[in-house]
Amino acid sequence: MIHAKDINEHTPWQDMTPGGEIYEAGTARAFNTGTWRTNTPVFHAEACKHCMLCVPFCPDSAIPVKDGKRLDFDYMHCKGCGVCAEVCPFPAITMVSGGVPR
Amino acid sequence: MSHRLSGNEAVAYALKQINPDVMGAFPITPSTEIPEQFANYVANGEVNTEYVTVESEHSSMSVCIAAQAAGARSVSATSSCGLALMYELLYVAASCRLPITLACVNRALSGPININHDYSDSMGARDSGWIQIYAENNQEAYDNFIMAMPIGEHLSVRLPVMSCMDGFITSHAVENIELLETDAVRSFIGEYKPENYLLKKENPLAVGPYDISPYYMEHKVQEAEAMKAAKARILEVAAEFAKISGRSYGLFEEYRMEDAEFALVLMGSSAGTAKAAVDKLREDGVKAGLVKIRVFRPFPGEELVRALAGTRAVAVMDKSEGFSGSGGPLFAETRSALYDLKERPHMINIVFGLGGRDLKVEDVEKVFGRLANIAVTGEIGPLYTHMGQRSKEEIV
Q1: Distance to chain B for A20, nearest Cα, Å
Q2: Residue B32: what pLDDT?
Q3: I need a surface site. Which of B98, B163, B241, B306 has the fewest CB within 10 A?
């Protein structure tokens, strides 16, 4: 069995799975898709009331929640779509240009 | 068992004997009588296939892809525009390496609107990664369909198989046919046992993930290698099939080619007409021969080189227009294969029979006449011509 973690951009075709099949769950954790981002949300913790509106709106599950409170963005998976900033009723999320988190 | 069946009935009967897990079926035109006949078997409880009726061929192939990925042996049948509507999914099936079996009844693509036989439908799908096997008659349509699964499902291959027959000429004409016993078919096909499948609960599986540039090419190379490997598997399965049926198949059939100076390369039911012409010419002392392509994907290029090496002139007869402006698809591949020969025969391309235009024995004799002329003069004349159309100009 070939594991996803053992396949990377140096793997020869002979060692890859047929048709790109993935034989395990949750492998998105292993891949940094945050690099696709061209805009980046910034979380202002002091203005956040933890209303949790942003969390279900995030199409990439990139807003982690712990003990009823949202944490800073998971920039490894956030694509910078800005939906969170749109739905936030408070000045707790602002968008900045560029893909690099600040 | 001897029977009289149409090509459609023969394939539907093969399906009944196989008893597949799932059929993705778009059961009205432009599909064939195959899903209609098979629906009777389902309704009568003669098979336990999950028969999924859908709203389009795009969906019938989607059903097959999902079912096959889940671990079920899946089949479909279609024709003409129905196949065209599947094109997107044909590539998905092949790239996911899902060995689905499809009965394709070859009919012209619109437009102009036409329902009769030519190969424009499956020739359009020739680069989709499917194995393509073509039948000359009902017997071959039945036999090829039974061989399809052991070919496609083999681990060295894992590719979908399109088992093709000529629309109306083969699909609707009733012929004598030898059927195998159902037990023999079932043990020949065996159980479908994929190593990994969606319903294997011990081992979660994701199928068809997004494949970015650093990975896509490697997967395409795998697919290309599988297609190359299919050639050996096709011959292996044919050898096994000969043991249970007494009928032998190769990648192509060579008819009176042993000492042939002039040869035709073509596929499907036209081979019957061409064989009659070859026999007639042989009686007159003309060394005529025929190569009937059975397997078009993978293309038997190296083997064709050996078969045609001794000839002086060859006509490749395409029953589909590729609109390349320089010949049909069978011509392009055959001519390319022969490039490596040091002493190449002269070669011409004739596109004929589009939209069900008849091919007569006399037409084939004329083609051989042209080949004989080419051999004498060394001048091939026009490389790529059409035959059978009305014209103000004399047709070469």
Answers
A1: 7
A2: 87
A3: B306
Q: Are residues A8 and A54 in the same domain?
A: no
- Closest Cβ opposite residue A18 in set B97, B203, B209: B97
The DSSP bridge pattern shows strands B262-267 and B288-293 to be: parallel
B151 with B239, same domain? yes
Of all residues in chain B, the percent with pLDDT exceeding 70 is: 99
Residues β-bridged to residue B266: B292
- Looking at residue A30, its pLDDT comes to 82
Average pLDDT over residues A61-82: 96
- CB neighbourhood size of B40 (10 A): 12
B200 token code pair: 């294997």
| β B384-387/B346-352 pair status | parallel
On whether both B188 and B308 belong to a single domain, the answer is: no
Q: Are B167 and B80 in contact (CB under 8 A)?
A: yes
Tokens of A56: 């279900």
> What is the CATH classification number for the domain harbouring B376?
3.40.50.920
Residues of chain A in contact with residue B221, where contact means CB-CB under 8 angstroms, are 13
Chain A within 8 Å of B196 (Cβ-Cβ)?
yes
- Residues A53 and A85 placed together within one structural domain of the fold: yes
Cα B71 from chain centroid? 25
Same domain? B225 vs B302: no
Residue from A7, A13, A24 to probe the interface with B (highest B Cβ count within 10 Å): A13
* CATH classification of the domain holding A92: 3.30.70.20
Neighboring chain B residues of A27 at a CB cutoff of 8 Å: 206
How many C-beta atoms lie closer than 10 Å to residue B176's C-beta? Answer: 11
What is the tens place of the pLDDT at every residue in A15-41?
999 999 999 988 888 888 999 999 999
Across the interface, do A19 and B221 touch by the CB < 8 Å criterion? no
Q: Give whole-number Cα distances, B48 to B17, B42, B61, B167, B237, in Å.
A: 11, 7, 20, 28, 26
User: Where in the sequence is the domain holding A50, given as residue range(s)?
Assistant: 32-102
The residue out of B245, B262, B277 marking a domain boundary is B245
Q: Which of A11, A21, A25 sits opposite B207 (nearest CB)?
A: A21
Residues A88 and A61 in one domain: yes
Which helix (H) or strand (E) segment holds residue B176: the answer is strand B174-178
The reply to whether residue A13 touches residue B203, judged by beta carbons under 8 angstroms, is: no
The whole domain housing B96 covers 2-245
What's the gap in Å between the CA of B92 and the closest CA on chain A? 10
- Say yes or no: B160 and B23 in one domain: yes
Distance from CA of A99 to the nearest CA of B (A): 19
Provide DSSP, B280-345: HHHHTT--EEEEEESEEES--HHHHHHHHTT-SEEEEEESS---SSS--HHHHHHHHHGGG-SSPP
Helix B182-189, helix B138-152: angle, nearest 10: 30
